Amino acid sequence: MQDRRRTDLLPASRHRVTLTPVPKDFIPPFEQVTSVGVIAFTREGKVAVTLQSRGFDIPGGHVQRGDRSLEETARREALEEARVTLGKVEYLGALRSNYYSEPTYIVLMAAMVEQVLPFAPSPDHRLRLFLTPEQFASVYSAGDRERMQAAVRQAWALFFP
User: Can you give the pTM of this predicted structure?
Assistant: First the structure.
């Protein structure tokens, strides 16, 4: 499939890309969402994690042409990257991006793993692990560590009150 929006590298003349948290109760219009990540927990409370070129990270990626919702994108990415199917999926929050001339959003979802399928390494996802939130926090290297730790705590509270 193809990404719904092209995300070529920005020319050097473009401004610096910033990501700004939006209010928790704001769910962006799906048409303005460029990517979706999902913090997926097993029943034992472990997080589905893959080793990618950018480091250890949660499943997630660009909205593809044909995706119809945040939940559908989260389910597709979890299956493609971590080879897990998802049960209950919940919206966690979003970051507004200034990458394009109009505002776009990166969304984070939380979910419960329903089924673990056989995993075969690929060049993009070399390893799949199920880590405790503490283990994940110690190896996460794909972005803002504090922001991800806060998101994992928020996701945990949804499923393990």
Answer: 0.91
